[in-house]
Design brief:
elongated
């Protein structure tokens, strides 16, 4: 695995939270020491990723995809962590989804062989890079969105000297007010015709993102997904998929509605070629204690299992000015706050190392480097105590931490996860 060389990177000032006396060690050497997160010299704030929860979540989505006859290309933008990409592929992922060219370049640097770019790609410099990657590696598979005739024209101009055509899927928008995507089936057909008129692009399917359906409900998401699958059927009947194509791609599925995606994709009638039903959820790998805890489809289908939150941010109480207020040394630079504030969960006593529930403690506000805690009498919080907090929205948790300790339940740090944002 290309990510193996990450263990040779030196630990230094770039990586917050790591032990100061580890300066100069390689990441692999530090991991081999199996230090304790609480007594091994780690400084606060420090983000911990649960080894057990990570393993559980990887296995659960593999089982879910297999059960429902789905392929799976988890969205790598969530973690931007090549070590986790490797684990996802080990657990059955077809490939990794990207959103922008930079992410695809990171993926290729670390050996990802299949990339689904869930976005339009019209940047000439990025397209020239892509053409070179495709030319250099016959086993590299790449697919991206198209949603306009003009976009097809720009791609064609940039790819005139390419040796291999770029595979594209027509993106059907999720309705007025949604994000990208052609808004009507007629517009999708026009885009498909424009692709067919080039030698640089190859139409391989249809795709979209159901999470952008306005005021989404199960019914409205289901209705849009049925439009998407009907579009695949119509394009196939009209002969718009080229001769020699081995499979037709139909892709959707963020982290909030993949149960409905599985339901509707199961209804898809046979097409002229086998169908790659591609799911793209990304947040599952770490799950969370807020946004996706509330939105995960496993809440609706508990018999399928349950994801486990893998993040815990540890910060130290540095000030206790009143009985109703305390401050810990983690803030906006350390914790996601775009959707929900952190959730105080446990307290580790500075006196004896005992851990108790964070009863009577609420995070009410974040500054750049402080979390404001509202406390009641039952909190019994002292300066020096460590507070463990759950976090919401994995995408804006990972991006604040370039090197994240992977921690077992007893506090042993067994590895370090490198991110590239």
């Amino acid at each position: 695995m290309a990510s193996e060389h990450l263990k040779d990177e030196r630990v230094d000032h770039r990586f917050k939270g790591l032990p100061i006396d580890a300066e100069g060690l390689t990441v692999g050497e530090l991991a081999a020491q199996r230090r304790d997160l609480f007594t091994g010299g780690f400084t606060t704030p420090v983000l911990a990723l649960s080894a057990e929860a990570l393993e559980h979540n990887l296995a659960l989505l593999e089982t879910y995809a297999e059960r429902h006859g789905l392929a799976f290309a988890p969205h790598g933008k969530t973690s931007m962590a090549p070590q986790l990409f490797d684990r996802q592929v080990e657990y059955g992922a077809w490939g990794i989804t990207a959103a922008v060219p930079h992410q695809a370049r990171v993926y290729r640097t670390f050996g990802i062989r299949r990339i689904f770019l869930a976005n339009e790609l019209v940047d000439a410099a990025a397209l020239r890079w892509l053409a070179a990657e495709l030319a250099d590696d016959p086993d590299f598979r790449f697919i991206c969105y198209v949603d306009s005739v003009r976009g097809v024209e720009l791609m064609d101009q940039a790819l005139r000297r390419s040796r291999r055509p770029v595979d594209v899927v027509v993106e059907l928008g999720a309705g007025d007010g949604a994000r990208t995507g052609a808004r009507t089936e007629a517009e999708c057909a026009a885009v498909a015709d424009a692709v067919a008129a080039t030698s640089t692009l190859r139409l391989v399917g249809v795709a979209g993102y159901e999470g952008e359906v306005p005021e989404a409900t199960t019914g409205s998401v289901r209705a849009w997904l049925r439009r998407l699958t009907a579009l695949a059927v119509e394009l196939d009947k009209a002969g718009r998929f080229p001769a020699g194509l081995d499979e037709i791609v139909v892709s959707a599925g963020g982290s909030a509605w993949f149960d409905t995606v599985a339901e509707v994709f199961a209804e898809l009638p046979p097409l002229s070629r086998p169908v790659l039903k591609l799911l793209r959820s990304g947040a599952y790998v770490s799950h969370d204690d807020g946004q996706y805890r509330n939105l995960t489809p496993f809440n609706r289908v508990p018999e399928e299992g349950a994801l486990q939150p893998a993040f815990r941010l540890w910060a130290q109480v540095v000030s206790r000015p009143t009985a109703e207020q305390a401050f810990v040394n983690a803030g906006k630079r350390d914790a996601a706050y775009d959707l929900h504030l952190p959730e105080a969960q446990v307290v580790r006593s500075a006196r004896d190392g005992s851990v108790r529930p964070a009863d009577g403690i609420t995070v009410s506000r974040l500054s750049d480097q402080h979390a404001w805690l509202d406390t009641t009498a039952e909190a019994e919080l002292e300066v020096g105590d460590w507070v463990g907090m759950g976090l919401s929205h994995p995408c804006t948790v990972f991006d604040k931490w370039p090197l994240i300790p992977l921690v077992e339940a007893d506090g042993t740090v067994v590895d370090y996860i490198r991110t590239f944002f």
